[in-house]
Amino acid sequence: MLSIITLRTHVAGTAGVDSASLVTTGQSLVAVYNWTFLLSQSLMPVACDLLLGYVLYRSGLVPRILPIVAFVGAPLLLASDIAVFFGAYAQVSPLAALAALPIAAFEFSLGIWLVVKGFKATPLTSTSAPSAWPHDAIPVA
What we know:
There is one protein chain. The chain is mostly helical. It has helices at residues 2-11, 19-59, 65-85, 94-116, 134-137. The termini are far apart.
């Protein structure tokens, strides 16, 4: 968006500049911004939260309900992204926000849970597990 403002303020007043090309350039920049936002801020959390949810579910480090929220929310967000791709509704519509709500709830509640409670005690997090440091494996004479 800053590039559009720069384009308007620095180039628009220059002599010999075609205003139609500025409009086309500005529309192109807005389109790139919209697609980048859709891919990075909406589609990537689907993959990231599915992977994170799977790891947390398998390890049992957090309550099971947190990864399940990710497993429910990721397909909803993916379906919403596909609908936006094909023009079923706008990217900032209430339906898109509703589809993103479970993923937002998962990410927020996971952050709060880890700050307040931390990971559950499991064999992965216990202090009695054998050390993986290389110097511990070398016998001392």
